[in-house]
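<goal> How does this chain fold?
<body> The protein record starts here
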Amino acid sequence: MDFPFEYFMAEMRGETLVSETAKKTWASSLETLKEVTGAIEKRHLNWCVMYGSLLGAVRHKGFIPWDDDIDIGMPRADYDIFRKSCFEDLPDGYNVMDPSEEVTPGLDMLRINNSAVLCDDPDFLRKYHGCPYIIGIDIFPIDAVPDDDETDAGICDALKLIARVVTIDESTDGITWEDRMERSQILQILQNTLHCSLPDDENLRILLMRQYDRLAAAFKGKKTKRCTVYRNHRFNEKHIFPRGIFNDCIETSFENTTVRIPRDYDTVLKIMYGDYLKPVKWENTVHKYGFEDQQRAVYDALGYIM
């Protein structure tokens, strides 16, 4: 992708200072998105930007000034095809994080990274505009919601139980006796209600995420009236959209390229954010981006300069 020299200069966007480092990361994210969506479109699959990326596309014609990642959504049928085909279609060196195949802390959806490690290889830095960071694209499956609210509530309850076990297991503050008892009780409930075996060993997390996917995709291919991303819907009963709304998409400007967004983006964004045209006011004019929190210290410790 071509970026003019001026693109990488620090600038104020609203009340937020976007640094040169952030600009390099944005450019790297767009390069990564291009590779990911190229692999998706090679299989003639549907996708569109989601959440903060969709909000940024509509409200800012690019990244939200205090954001640093890209989210996309895919209808479940397309998502399932891509999670199998991506290994063949993505560039060498790309890293696929699939929680149903490996333990992926903090993830319950597919993530595609442009590398598995911080990289100072000259060819890598040239392609990604001097950004050495691991850039990831989060891919959310968009699932059919049963028309029966009671059935939908049952799916959400089971997903919350799975998420609770994962949260306990990922706790960095240590697991209390009460946590262990709760965890044991939840696993028993899940085995009884889902009619499955969940041996409490090193494979438990993967087995739980496979059950999670099975539940979320329970109405795949059914002509229900609604759809959702269960990752958010399980905690928010209003996070439901009209069926097919993410299939009818248009192209819109995003930084110096274009992305796909739902044609009826207004309905989508109102469900997600309410009054989405009013930016949330930030008290500080300098925002510390997520990639800096997670990777900058490691990169600096290795003696590299960005």
User: Anything to note?
Assistant: Residues 20-42 form the longest helix (23 residues). The chain has two domains: 11-142+244-301, 149-218.
